[in-house]
User: Fold these one by one.
Assistant:
Number 1:
Amino acid sequence: MIFFMAVPILYIIFISFLQRGINGGIDVIFSLENYKRIFSPLYLRIFLDSVSIAFTTTLCTLFLGYPFAYLVAKIPKRFRILAVMLIIIPFWTNSLIRTYAWMILMSTGGLINNVLIKMGLISEPLKMLYTYGAVLVGMIYALFPFMVLPLYTSIEKIEGIFIDAAKDLGANPLKAFLTVTLPLTMPGIIAGCILVFIPSLGLFYICDLMGGSKVMLIGNLIKNQFLVSRDWPFGAAVSIIMMIAILVIIGISIKLLGKKIDLEVF
């Protein structure tokens, strides 16, 4: 842990207080300029856009994933493994290949546009790629299992006697869900939201491929500073700010939950 985690993070913290060299190297000159640059309107806008799309992705995966996880947890046990495997198997394929597959499907000459035209729903191909919506679809697809699996684990642990007791006391199915099932699965909801929100801040390749570099998020900014601009100190400073923001979000989530998140849902 010290070698693979602590040392790299300490190194990133160290160079974040240095300056970029003339030829793209690092000058060992202490400076706070990198952190001051982050609070310029341009970079604040990128940070807000990143939080916005991460929040939207988290909500969409939650609303899509909860009913799916609930159904999987309630089907007969002999079919549950198959249902879970149907979620996991596609992710044995490289994520870049799956992203390119979505690009082919959503292109102007792709399957989706061809089907819509043949059905008479549209007269000309829709421009779906290189938009905010395309990035959102890619994010939801990539992170869907990270929401479903914690929810499934949390829902499966609920004993039927609690639901039966609520019904015996006069609760209808909706009220039993809201007062019993939903509170008991809150650890899974929080865990799933954390597992989706945090990676969605840094999935730069989805924005590059499906957004056509028109959608700039904080992950793209960090990648560009290290690989394109060769401004490692500024890229390190942005990375540190993002890590601090993530720690704050996790702390707030645990505080709102009111208890420690059940680590078994991970």
Note: The CA atoms of residues 98 and 241 lie 30 Å apart.
Number 2:
Amino acid sequence: MNSRERILGRVRRALADVPADDPPYERAVPRDYLREHGERTTEETVELLAENLADYRAVVHRTGREELPTLIMRLLDAHGTREVLVPDGLPPAWLSATKARRVEDRATDTPDRLDRVDSVVTGCAVAVAETGTIVLDGSADQGRRRISLIPDHHICVVRVPEQIVGSVPQALERLDPTRPLTWISGPSATSDIELDRVEGVHGPRALEVILVG
């Protein structure tokens, strides 16, 4: 008997006394919690997202679609970016103004190679106002999960208002649970026992979020 058979055997024994007419999990567990805390207009939801992103020490920018390429160029230049990592499906216009060398998202690149890239630019799947969280799901404009975790500087573009929701339950309704979801609330950070904050431990040291609309 291998480990898989042993584990499944334990599960079957634990479920042996469950009645045949027992309601399925999705109906047995009550889900009467609030989907959103209070009512907000679209503008108020966007403001709340910006406030909570900043509270997590992300840098928030706002721009129109036509000005987006220029803003991205300025942010990359300010960071001193020589190489920028680009997901396959990132709209080409977003980087049309930048002079930094583009590095494609390739499965063959090693973590060491990605660590030498200065910045990465991605889109997002959804942004949650109440928690100041952006979610990536590996879509074409976001690339593999690792490209948002290894480079030191992450620029994430959020389309306003279509990609912004008020709460986590509303975000989950939009997301496919079979996709590789990455939930990001500010730059990577941790604290030691004396509460000294250290950024860039498990991901980018700098997170810049652009609200485009």
Note: The longest strand covers residues 153-159.
Number 3:
Amino acid sequence: MSDLNEGNEQTIQHTERTERQRTLIFINLMITCIAVSMLATALTTALPAIVTDLSISVTTGQWLTSGYSLAMAIVMPLTAYLMNRVPTKKLYLSALAIALIGLLLCAAAPNFYVMMAARILQAIGNGILTAMAQVILLTIYPMNRIGVVMGWYGLSITAAPVIAPTLAGLIVDRLNWHAIFYIVAAIVLLSLIWAIRVFDDVLPTAKSRFDQLSFVLSAFAFGGITLGFGNIGSYGFVSLPVLGSLGIGLLGGLWFVLRQFKSANPFLDLRVLKTKEYAISVFGSIMLYLVLMGSAMLMPLYVQSILGKSATISGLVILPGSLVSAFLSPIAGRIYDKIGIRLLTIVGGGSLVLSNIGMYFVHMDSSIWLAVGLNVLRCAATGCLLMPFVTWGNKNIPPELTAHGTALLTSLRTVAGAIGTALFVGIMNSVAQKSTTLSGTAALLHGMNVSFLLMTIASGLLFATGLFLIRDKKKEAPVWVEGLEEPIE
């Protein structure tokens, strides 16, 4: 009976908000997340122009992207505390304002240091907004509809970052790199004005003490690991910047974990990992992002550095996959609502295995259309799995821990993406340099083949997870309660 009462209270929470209010909040979140998600990868195309204008080296300029990822990794664990402590509307508007200030500063940046500070502001705003969006959607929609809703939301965090380099290239060619930030700033300003009108305090809040030590430890843990793997490309794995950062990150992470389990009011509640379904969803998301971001870096290198094609061709090679991912994301949400996560994991994991092993056998005479097709297969897997993993994982933890679950999953996913980006590029370069029988582009291609072979292993682990570890629970008939618009699942 207690379960019925809990479901009754949860359904009442959903029906207090009209369908129109939900839709307006949802559209606002979509617009915001599409705009800010583009910022993560847009500079990869614009970097040469920025480097020239600011008179800096490519190595220094790369920090505009690496530093952004590092700041994201540090701010993510903080979002759980902020969402539980600060009223929803105030926090959401503040995050939008921070991102907007960062965008305007970037657009008018007179030197690298101002631009770097502005990128950190953008990362802080994006980190808060990304975590909030998922928790808000999981809160305002009932569970029998959340798969479709999260599927549509998945468009913003899957398609936008992959399409962004192509759009940024077009903007730079037609206008200049400053225009990228002005255009996104205009979208964020529109979203801010809209949010003032449609948002309300969706998430419950309570007074809680800010655990400064836990925050510092989380910053060292997530930041150290992200920085360590990010340094592989510049210094090699056996070096102080890499091993030192990784050591600090791992020690900070161990201390952070021990402190959270001992604390009565943890900064980031790691008890969510005791739920089997949530733990599997975290593992699946990590494997998926590891492969997704690794391949996202290798594909442009293959097209430009190995095949000698232009940046525009590189963007066009990736574009069909992005469109397929965007198309499948809401469909995958509907499939999840109807049959669960297991079949999606098996099909998605299998698609990743096939796409990555296919790239292992690519050679110099292979048609570029083969790479296009394999990338479409890989992106299809992403569309099938990215948001269903988030939905499934959070569905199986207590509602009061949703903010913590989302913050932890997003943090680990961000770190996995940074690791995938640095690790597989590093492996490609290392194998190419150590090749004794090949040289030039042939050696680089061999290094890329080996990297995709290792991605196949990671994809195989994801496939095996769906095959052996996931079992969808049978859905019970919904319970209708008089006076409520929707049944209790």
Note: The two ends are 14 Å apart (CA to CA).
